[in-house]
Design a protein that fits this description.
The protein is mainly alpha-helical and about 350 residues long. Helix content is about 40%, strand content about 5%.
């Protein structure tokens, strides 16, 4: 028996024992703490839930699916292959997953992305997790949706540096690809539009529901620690929800800020409008604890520093260390269940 089959055969046993221990533990703290909760209008309250939960939305399992690109399992599978496919880069070694690495919160954990020929771009790689919930893509919102976004990185000289027609010619060399395009779209043609649609469909499946915060919003008052609850309250009371709102905690809108070390003019590059100088899209705060470093230039390493900068630049406040720690603890509760993606076997 090789080590992998050994693991899968033995793990469920440990898993079951571990689960028993955990549920037993939960049951105990659950009942003892529940007696501390009072009922307000028939709802158990911990002093925070009734007052603050209404400011937030739980993360659904799927984002809205646009009518111009309905999704089928075959299209999602094709999108997954393309996402992991390095042949559609000029060097043959860079795929979307190089920078949006599933092991690293679907990002890359370096300040600014490194692409074709080791070139370093100007911006930090955002996670693609929950990106179907954004109504603007990129830090400057130059594309409205995932379909529009998908082909940019293939062609960008500092990312994959591959003319689209050559990328498609490479895929056409493989009968296996023609078969998956046929399964997904009815005919074997490989077109830029189909590539973009399939990549968008796959990315719409990369969502992270059931975080401790989502379980709390669903009524499990033990899902957050006291510090996390204080952090949630501080997040609302200090006005963070003005921009970090909705299921992915972003308004997909643009706000002026110059984070430390950044000279990037942001949305101005797209619109040429002076009012847009230094405006950036509000990033999602879902899974923010695992998508460091922070900000458009990746210049800030810790959540604690990022929270302090936000308080100062966006709201004109200096948080004391306890409030900062509480908000950071709250942000940790936004890490959800990562999508269970098995990397595809490429032809
Ligand atoms: C060389 C690294 C690199 C590669 C390869 C790459 N990306 Fe990105 N991705 C980035 C960076 C950097 C940004 C932000 C760029 C900006 O805002 O100007 C980004 C932004 C995005 C966004 C927008 C997310 C948001 O929050 O706005 C999506 C979606 C995305 N990429 C998907 C893809 C797909 C699909 C591919 C493959 C076709 C891909 N990326 C290839 C680095 C990369
Ligand atoms: C006026 C809108 C606005 C408000 C209010 C606001 N933010 Fe932000 N937030 C942004 C924008 C825009 C960025 C991206 C800035 C950049 O990178 O240039 C950001 C970035 C962040 C980041 C870094 C995320 C990442 O992945 O890089 C964190 C963490 C954060 N905000 C937390 C908070 C907290 C906590 C508060 C309240 C104290 C807050 N924000 C208030 C708009 C806002």
């Amino acid at each position: 028996m090789n080590w992998k089959t050994h693991l899968t055969k033995t793990l469920p046993v440990f898993g079951a024992v571990g689960l028993l221990a955990i549920t037993a533990g939960c049951g105990m703290t659950g009942t003892s703490e529940r007696s501390e909760y009072t009922k307000v209008d028939g709802v158990y309250d911990d002093g925070y839930f009734v007052r603050y939960s209404g400011f937030f939305e739980a993360l659904p399992t799927l984002p809205p699916i646009p009518s111009h690109n309905p999704m089928s399992p075959e299209q999602v599978d094709l999108g997954k292959m393309l996402f992991f496919e390095p042949r559609i880069s000029a060097s043959g070694v860079i795929s979307c997953a190089t920078c949006h690495n599933p092991a690293l919160g679907w990002s890359d954990r370096i300040p600014r992305a490194t692409g074709h020929d080791g070139q370093v771009g100007d911006r930090n790689t955002p996670t693609v997790l929950n990106s179907g919930f954004f109504t603007a893509q990129f830090w400057d919102g130059r594309e409205p949706d995932l379909e529009g976004q998908a082909l940019g990185p293939i062609e960008a000289d500092i990312e994959m540096n591959m003319p689209l027609d050559e990328a498609i010619a490479r895929l056409e060399e493989f009968d296996a690809y023609k078969r998956v395009f046929e399964a997904a779209y009815g005919t074997p043609e490989i077109t830029p539009e189909r590539v973009a649609k399939a990549l968008a469909n796959f990315q719409r499946t990369l969502n992270t529901p059931n975080s401790p915060f989502d379980r709390y919003l669903a009524g499990d008052l033990d899902a957050l620690t006291d510090s996390q609850k204080r952090g949630m309250a501080a997040f609302v009371d200090n006005g963070c929800t003005a921009c970090h709102t909705g299921p992915a905690l972003t308004d997909s809108n643009f706000h002026a800020i110059q984070v430390p070390g950044s000279t990037d003019v942001g949305r101005f590059l797209v619109t040429g409008d002076e009012a847009d100088r230094f405006r950036f899209k509000t990033p999602t705060l879902r899974n923010v604890a695992v998508t460091y470093p922070y900000f458009n230039n990746g210049g800030t390493e810790t959540l604690s520093e990022a929270v302090q900068i936000m308080g100062r630049e966006m709201l004109g406040r200096e948080f004391d260390s306890r409030t900062n720690a509480d908000i950071v603890a709250f942000l940790h509760s936004l890490t959800g269940e990562m999508p269970q993606i098995v990397p595809p076997a490429l032809p």
